[in-house]
Design brief:
The chain has 6 helices and 4 strands. Helix 3 (62-76) packs across helix 4. The chain is α/β, with parallel strands linked by helices and 136 residues long. The mean pLDDT is 78. The longest helix has 15 residues, at 62-76. Helix 4 links the parallel strand 3 and strand 4 (104-108).
Length: 136
């Protein structure tokens, strides 16, 4: 989990926030606060020797990841979903889980997807997320 996610999560208790992300085979594990929000991994990064398969390895985990995410949402009785855009996978899973569970969805963009990637999937997902996100 990134340092930014860890620092943001440190501001919340386990009753206020559940953090879901991916686990990397190569990154050093971060120190997660023991009394902070619970942390769950639903997507696993590619094994180091298989780096060429990384896009396919991640895409193959989307449906199982969505099932795990919906299960976590129901177990913790989440009322809102905030999804960040470091990758399309995180944003798509948050968006899809919000649709499946009927929850408010709040996307968080560091920058827009269209600024970084030029493909039809990116445009489709960004347009849907902007259209369907909660506006408060």
């Amino acid at each position: 989990m990134s340092t930014i996610a860890r620092n943001i999560a440190a501001c919340f208790s386990e009753d206020e926030l559940v953090v879901v992300g991916d686990r990397s085979f190569t990154a050093q594990p971060s120190q997660w606060p023991k009394d902070g929000p619970s942390l769950h991994h639903i997507i696993y990064d590619h094994p180091p020797k298989l780096w060429r398969l990384q896009p396919w390895f991640r895409r193959a985990q989307l449906m199982p990841g969505l099932v795990r995410l919906v299960s976590i949402i129901r177990r913790y009785q989440c009322r809102r979903i905030i999804a960040s855009f470091p990758t399309e996978d995180h944003l798509f899973l948050g968006y899809a889980a919000a649709k499946v569970c009927g929850l408010d969805f709040y996307p968080y963009f560091h920058n827009t997807m269209a600024e970084q990637r030029q493909n039809l999937y990116t445009k489709w997902l960004q347009d849907r997320v902007f259209c369907d996100s909660k506006k408060n």
